[in-house]
Task: inverse folding
């Protein structure tokens, strides 16, 4: 079993099952729409699917070694065409070119496959050309359309495709992918709890402003524990200067929320330590857990959620943070 298959199957078991079932029963549709967030494995899956269809070896899974598999991997197979946006959009002439290529019979294999990446970026005239193409599919043609924003595509195109929905990455998997890209463990653990979009997670995980945000929120938390009366000073010293607008304060509230959720999961014994947003703060969190109750922590979490609601309702962020700090002071029993 190849590593690629194992990776994809871990990432998207349902999609893989749909594909392999179709192949096993000899029921391959003319067109598929692969939709899901960036980094969820759509393009890898499309190439894997193309290899499964053209592999010279017997069986459903591609061998990854025959000449067809290797040429698909290197982008050199004459019967597999990949269309990418030309600049900001996919233009009509790209689709027309594809149609011309597909009007010829397959060069080698008995199937021709085209993959359109970012299919939502087709211009209106490109989309209309594609629609005509999809309406009259040749028996030996398979279309794989990839998109992060299916809602931007023509419903008439979507309705002609079999839908393959890619799940967002589970936090642990996202964390490991970030660590592979040399994001540090504390940052990877935290950002994978904030988003399941790999690109956004990677951007946050490597951003100096975000690293600073994490430090300031942790400092505020420590002051709340050890010297609650100074928390207001800390807020004015560090916090307000760093988290300036509504969006930034909203992120700070999320960071604080994750910290209290970590605390709650330690207190309730539900969480495994692998799943913490702040694994490097385990000692501090365990120590706090000894001195505060589940009821207190739940009240603190409620206060943060309430602050998030008020922020959304356009309450002044500084005033809101001052109120929140007062509540968190009152709700804690301190070390
Ligand atoms: Zn092969």
Result:
């Amino acid at each position: 079993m190849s590593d690629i298959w194992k990776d994809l199957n871990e990432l998207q078991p349902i999609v893989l099952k749909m594909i392999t079932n179709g192949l096993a029963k000899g029921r391959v549709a003319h067109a598929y729409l692969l939709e899901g967030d960036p980094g969820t494995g759509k393009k890898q899956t499309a190439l894997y699917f193309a290899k499964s269809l053209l592999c010279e070896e017997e069986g459903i899974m591609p061998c990854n070694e025959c000449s067809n598999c290797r040429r698909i991997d290197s982008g050199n197979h004459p019967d597999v065409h990949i269309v990418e946006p030309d600049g900001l959009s996919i233009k009509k002439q790209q689709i027309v070119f594809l149609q011309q290529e597909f009007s010829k019979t397959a060069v080698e294999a008995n199937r021709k496959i085209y993959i359109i990446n970012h299919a939502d970026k087709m211009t209106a005239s490109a989309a209309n050309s594609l629609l005509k193409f999809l309406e009259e599919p040749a028996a030996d043609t398979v279309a794989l359309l990839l998109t992060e924003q299916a809602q931007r595509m023509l419903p008439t195109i979507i309705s002609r495709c079999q839908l393959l929905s890619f799940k967002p990455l589970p936090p642990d998997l996202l964390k490991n992918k970030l660590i592979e890209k040399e994001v540090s463990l504390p940052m990877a653990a935290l950002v994978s709890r904030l988003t399941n979009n790999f690109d956004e997670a990677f951007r946050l995980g490597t951003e100096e402003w975000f690293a600073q945000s994490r430090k300031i929120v942790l400092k505020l938390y420590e002051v709340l524990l050890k010297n609650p009366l100074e928390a207001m000073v800390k807020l004015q010293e560090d916090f307000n200067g760093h988290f300036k607008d509504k969006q930034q304060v909203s992120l700070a509230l999320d960071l604080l929320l994750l910290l209290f959720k970590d605390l709650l999961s330690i207190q309730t014994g539900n969480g495994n330590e692998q799943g913490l947003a702040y694994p490097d703060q385990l000692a501090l969190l365990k120590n706090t857990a000894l001195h505060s109750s589940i009821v207190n922590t739940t009240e603190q979490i409620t206060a943060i959620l309430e602050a998030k609601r008020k922020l959304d309702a356009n309450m002044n962020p500084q005033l809101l943070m001052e109120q929140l700090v007062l509540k968190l002071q009152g709700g804690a029993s301190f070390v």
Residues 55-57, 62-63, 65-66, 68-69 surround zinc ion (CB under 6 Å). The longest helix spans residues 246-268.
